[in-house]
Amino acid sequence: MQASNGRLALRDDEVLVAGADRSPATPAVMQIQHDRPDVAVEVLPPGSPFTPGFNVKRVRVFIDYNGIVALMPMIG
């Protein structure tokens, strides 16, 4: 799903980075924080340990070794 204004299209169940499949992490995180100030953003490089479990107040941004968003950021 793409937002008509080119911004993140945010729903309660997922966060979509609109208009790009491979976004740099910093602008993606800044956009998430702007659009959803009510959630905490966690940036996780490859191999980072993280606790499993769903949290409606968290967005995890998985990045690759080049600082590019590797997976679609999702609330949880």
Describe the overall structure.
By secondary structure, the chain is of the alpha+beta class. It has one domain (9-75): 2-Layer Sandwich (Trypsin Inhibitor V, Chain A), CATH 3.30.10.10. The chain has one helix at residues 25-35, and strands at residues 9-10, 15-16, 40-44, 58-62, 74-75. The strands form two sheets. A three-stranded mixed β-sheet has the order 3-4-5, with helices on one face. It has a two-stranded antiparallel ribbon with strand order 1-2. Residues 1-16 have low confidence and may be disordered.
Key attributes of the depicted protein:
14% helix, Trypsin Inhibitor V, Chain A, 76 residues, 1 helix, 5 strands, two-stranded antiparallel ribbon, three-stranded mixed β-sheet, alpha+beta
CATH homologous superfamily assignment: Trypsin Inhibitor V, subunit A
Instruction: Tell me the helix content.
Output: 10-25%
Got a strand count? Answer: 5
- Annotated CATH topology: Trypsin Inhibitor V, Chain A
Q: Which series of helices and strands comes N to C?
A: EEHEEE
Low-confidence stretches: 1-16
Would you tell me the overall average pLDDT? 79
Number of helical regions: 1
> How big is the Rg?
12 Å
Strand count, sense and barrel status of the largest sheet are: 3 strands, mixed
Oligomer category: single chain
What would CATH call the class? Answer: Alpha Beta
Short description:
The chain has 1 helix and 5 strands, in the order ββαβββ.
Please render the helix and strand layout as text.
Elements: E1 9-10, E2 15-16, H1 25-35, E3 40-44, E4 58-62, E5 74-75
Parallel strand pairs: 3-4
Antiparallel strand pairs: 1-2, 4-5
